[in-house]
Amino acid sequence: LWNMRSFVEATTQALRQKIGTERVICALSGGVDSSVTAVLLHRAIGDRLTCIFVNNGVLRQGEAEKVVRLFRENYRLNLVYVDASKSFLKLLEGIVDPEEKRRRIGREFIRVFAEEAGKLGQVKYLAQGTLYPDVIESVSFKGPSATIKTHHNVGGLPEVMPLELIEPLRELFKDEVREVGSELGLPEEMIWRHPFPGPGLAIRILGEVTPERLAILRQADAIVLEEMKAAGFYRQVWQAFAVLLPIKTVGVMGDERTYENVIALRVVDSTDAMTADWSRLPYDLLARLANRIINEVKHVNRVVYDISSKPPSTIEWE
Ligand code: XMP
């Protein structure tokens, strides 16, 4: 079709024309789609773009700081950082139903985002990193018509805010977005980030989301990413993450009986998340992951590997 350099040039021109002297906001998650969208917009309209990053309290270890730092260091774009973690965690108290978690997080996200957008005033457009698969597939995570899981994102915003949508990546696939990102000079770290769901770790903690359980999952998850990267497997898989199960099992440490949590590892190969297969990781790597998690993460005494494909399983556990 067209190469990514001409895509960048043509899109920048088109965005300038369409937007004129109006203002645009963009919900930035730090994922590759929203990051590329933000950088494209920034290239086109500079200061008239404001990005909003919402910390929903269920992000990975160090994630909020990392995204904010990457953007502040690399771009002079307007970035509003909102730490709403307390209100999100409050809303999740006592909630175990996956769909209820998703609904609560989605609603609160929209509330926080609308509040911030309101403070800016005079905004005409909302930019989103919608991709082609999101447009065509009914289980898309950014489209409004999710059928299997209530996928959360900012797709519902125009209903509460009279904003026009701008979706510059609508015709691209994930690998093309990564090429555009690379054309735009985005840091490798951003370009190759795995997808991360809007409801974040909340849907990877089965059962209630508590600060203690979040701390356990964050540590396990950080080990998974670190070891996947160290072994050179991070880029080869679609996603790799830890899930905290709502059960305890018996173990032994020294000559003491333990009764602690189970971590499940989920690592999948995929091209568009519509179908996926579990990654055939080397046994050595799996062994290292299990050993490190059990040795280093307090309150975990067992690690299991998820060998289910999608369908019939989904990538996330909730
Ligand atoms: P499932 O679990 O349905 O996930 O196989 C497919 C892909 O979508 C991601 N995912 C989400 N992304 N908001 C998002 O932005 C969500 O609510 C959401 N739920 C799942 C998931 O990580 C996988 O890449």
Structural notes for this entry:
ATP binds at residues 29-35. It is an enzyme of class 6 (ligase). Its EC number is 6.3.5.2. One of its GO terms (molecular function) is GMP synthase activity. This protein has helices at residues 4-19, 32-45, 63-74, 85-92, 98-120, 132-136, 157-160, 174-183, 188-191, 211-230, 283-296; strands at residues 24-27, 49-55, 78-83, 125-127, 164-166, 239-253, 256-269, 277-278, 300-305. The chain has 318 residues and is of the alpha/beta class. It has two domains: 4-191, Rossmann fold (3-Layer(aba) Sandwich), CATH 3.40.50; 204-305, 2-Layer Sandwich (GMP Synthetase, Chain A, domain 3). Strands 3-2-1-4-5 form a five-stranded parallel β-sheet, with helices on both faces. Strands 6, 7, 8 and 9 form a four-stranded mixed β-sheet that branches. Strand 6 (239-253) and strand 7 form a beta hairpin. It starts with a helix and ends in a 13-residue tail after the last strand. 37% of the residues are buried.
